Amino acid sequence: MTLDEYFATGPSFERPIFDEVADFVETLGPVTVEFVSVGVIFKKPSSWMQLRPKRTWVAMTFPMRRAVRHRTIKNKPMSNGRDSSAQWYVANLNSPDDLNDELRDFLAESFDL
């Protein structure tokens, strides 16, 4: 699916959040962005981070090797069978402004895992 095909049917709040996240991720290093029916997957080369639209927000899932807290992280971290030292966090982004400096720092740290 192309970027235009994906966003042709999505909720209006999703594209501005994607743009903000994608612009920041570009500063971290090379990634491949895959648009699938359930969301957007960022790969480096395997799956690293995901954006999935929900009813009124976008769930951004990313791994960390340490415990983190942020006002947008509402759920308990999930483990990943491939890497038992990483925990997956879900940050619920209601707007592009939710991607603040603290959350950007978490993504940068996560990118370097």
Detail the topology: elements first, then pairings:
Layout: H1 3-7, H2 14-26, E1 32-36, E2 39-43, E3 47-53, E4 58-64, E5 78-79, E6 87-93, H3 101-111
Keywords:
single chain, 113 residues, alpha+beta, 6-stranded antiparallel β-sheet, 3 helices, 6 strands
Report on this model:
The protein has helices spanning 3-7, 14-26, 101-111, and strands at residues 32-36, 39-43, 47-53, 58-64, 78-79, 87-93. It has 113 residues and is of the alpha+beta class. The chain has a 6-stranded antiparallel sheet, covered by helices on one side. The radius of gyration is 13 Å and the shape is globular. The model has no long low-confidence stretch (mean pLDDT 92).
Please provide a brief summary of the model.
The protein is α+β, with helices and mostly antiparallel strands and 113 residues long. 26% of the residues lie in helices and 29% in strands. The chain has a 6-stranded antiparallel sheet, with helices on one face.
